[in-house]
């Protein structure tokens, strides 16, 4: 069944605001949206599926730009393998960035400890 929905119903069913839907629509994340002569936009079940997928992708850490690069892949074929492979590639990049940040923070932590120890020695040397 390909039920048409107005933005309010779509928002309720997807658990997002109408403003979010308009934003995603402007970014092209929802695919084709039907606009009738009365000016109303009508959304399909596929728009709902796309919104639900966007929510999942956001929860696992993808940005809207990253989602934009992958969302259509999820709807090209039933297994969604292309989309999943692309998400793995994106998450691998996030992991690499995270590992680098952790290494940088670890180095910074060691520098802080070293500075604290140097200052403590200076204080100890000045204290009678």
Which H/E pattern describes the elements? HHEEHHH
Low-confidence stretches: none
Mean pLDDT: 93
Distance between the termini: 86 Å
Give the tally of β-strands: 2
Structural classification: mainly alpha
Q: Under the CATH scheme, which architecture would be assigned? A: Orthogonal Bundle
Question: Strands of the largest sheet, in order across it?
Answer: 1-2
Helix content: over 70%
Give the overall shape: elongated
Q: Count helical runs.
A: 5
Main beta-sheet annotation? 2 strands, antiparallel
In the CATH hierarchy, the third-tier topology is known as: Multidrug-efflux Transporter Regulator, Chain: A, Domain 2
Describe the structure.
- The protein is elongated.
- It has one domain (7-126): Multidrug-efflux Transporter Regulator, Chain: A, Domain 2 (Orthogonal Bundle), CATH 1.10.1660.
- Helices cover 70% and strands 3% of the residues.
- The termini are far apart.
- It is mainly alpha-helical.
- The protein has a two-stranded antiparallel sheet with strand order 1-2.
- The chain has five helices and two strands, in the order H-H-E-E-H-H-H.
